[in-house]
Amino acid sequence: MTDPLAAAAAAAAVFAATNIDDIVVLTVFFVAARHAGRPRPWHIVAGQYLGIGALVAVAVVVAAGLLVVPDPWTGLLGLLPIGLGIRAVLSRSADDGPPAVVGSLLGVAGVTIANGADNVAVYVPVFRSLDPATGLVWLLVFAALVAVWCAVAALLGGHPRVVRLVGRAGRWLVPAVFVAIGATILVTSGVLTRLAELAG
Fold first, then answer.
1. pLDDT tens, position by position, for the chain (200 residues)?
2. What does the alpha-carbon distance between residue 83 and residue 114 come to, in Å, rounded to a whole number?
3. Alpha-carbon distance 175 to 1, whole Å?
């Protein structure tokens, strides 16, 4: 019989290890929400749930053998945050505040999916090895930790020092964060190497 506490601890460890970078992205979203009014806080929370839910759903389907993920082509999702960052730079106003890189629930979900596409490679073998009861524990822990991640990011996004930092450097810092995330996704996924091989 599966120990629910051990399963919950393992799920929490895997979630934290694969989603620690989401804290930065969510914090940027919450600071932008305070300054620009978008994305709205509920867009951020719902978008994060939608994005993580989509990643987990894909991992479960792949683990069941019903779908094959074309690795490393998922790395092309890194173009999404890069595009959002560049758009934020090009559309910035004279206002010194952080730009609203995304303004909707689907935008937040898209960034979450792009930032977590590599998580699927970790989740698939895990979900393949879990029995249904343990899998349910993992899903419940993931759902709870999404709420924790959003709460922590909202607190950080309201912290005076964070707000001052982003307020001073937000015009460039926020787009730079998104471009860096996208570049990291492209480089670590191996998609650039694959494209170079095809071009050669």
1. 468 888 899 999 999 988 888 888 898 888 888 877 788 999 999 999 999 999 999 888 888 876 666 666 777 777 888 887 787 777 665 555 555 667 788 889 988 888 887 788 788 888 888 888 898 999 999 999 999 999 999 998 888 887 677 666 666 777 787 788 778 778 877 778 888 888 76
2. 12
3. 48
Helices (H) and strands (E) in the chain, counts: 8, 0
- The closest alpha carbon to 62, from 148, 104, 120, 5, belongs to 120
Single-letter code of the amino acid located at 22: D
Tell me, letter by letter, the H, E, C secondary structure of 66-113. Answer: CCCCCCCHHHHHHHHHHHHHHHHHHCCCCCCCCCCCCCCHHHHHHHHH
Q: Which H or E run contains 98?
A: none
Length of the chain: 200
pTM here is 0.78
